[in-house]
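Field notebook, page 266. I keep forgetting to write these up properly, so this time I am using the form the group agreed on. The chain and the ligand, adenosine-5'-triphosphate, are recorded exactly as supplied. Prediction of the bound pose follows.
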Amino acid sequence: MIKLKDVYYTYGTRYAVEGVSLEIKEGEVTAFVGPNGAGKTTIAKLISGIIKPTRGSVYVDGIDTKKSSHLEIIRKVGIIFQNPDYQLFERTVLEEVMFALKNMGYDRREAQDRAMKALDRFGLSKYANRPPLSLSGGEKKRLTFAIVYAWDPKYIVFDEPTVGQDGLNLKNLRNLMDEMLKEGKGVIITSHDMEFLWPLNPSTFVVKEGKVVWMGKMKELFKEANYSDANLIEPQLSVISKKLSLKEPALSVEDAAEVIKGVSNI
Ligand SMILES: Nc1ncnc2c1ncn2[C@@H]1O[C@H](COP(=O)(O)OP(=O)(O)OP(=O)(O)O)[C@@H](O)[C@H]1O
Ligand SMILES: [Mg+2]
């Protein structure tokens, strides 16, 4: 479990995160949503130990991130950045994936083995010898998935993972998340993409001006008025569920179709 206890963070002037307390469980999907500049990425970085709280504490499986090395935390919590360019600096795609593995103590041979498997998993083996920055936007993002996947952390924080991904790669991303959940791992997502999040029905934190203003299961979020000032786009299935006056919103097109078929039979 990851715990934030009354966490504050400032980049220098005002607080980007202000008095946030929350818990994130493994084996679940957790989502952070809210307006641009709300503090979602800052929370993501706090969770993965890249930055330490100005006040308050972050615990990863009981380890206080302030009292541990970045390496100790990142082994448990991998983060995939919003902007892949910040994560890529090696000469080749293969070396890029191997870099973190070597830092974590894998010898060169084992690092190469794990790296090749990860590249294969994300359809990037054919680019192994290319400079990372020569990949397309979506490929770069996929490379950052492969980098983190390679060291198999217990939690992965996906910061805006769906940006620039085509249909097939979105499906692959969903499969990767399903796989992680089956293994009892924690999937943490920040996103503006409500259509992607909705079927996952994640434990959701709505962040606004550095504070958590709502928490609960996503399917509850749009039943209430709380989302209206958080700049969220209501998912289509939530809208249609309301129009059909369903007691519970449909989480999949299949569920909605069942209801519609039922209604038309009456
Ligand atoms: N390196 C930085 N230096 C100074 N201020 C920063 C820095 N990074 C973020 N901020 C500020 O902190 C606040 C929170 O930013 P953050 O990136 O966490 O927002 P976000 O919710 O992830 O937004 P988005 O939806 O646009 O990704 C914003 O006001 C932002 O301008
Ligand atoms: Mg962000």
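OBSERVATIONS:
- Residues 40-41, 82, 159, 190 surround magnesium ion (ligand 2) (CB under 6 Å).
- The first helix runs from residue 40 to 47.
FOLLOW-UP: compare against the apo run.
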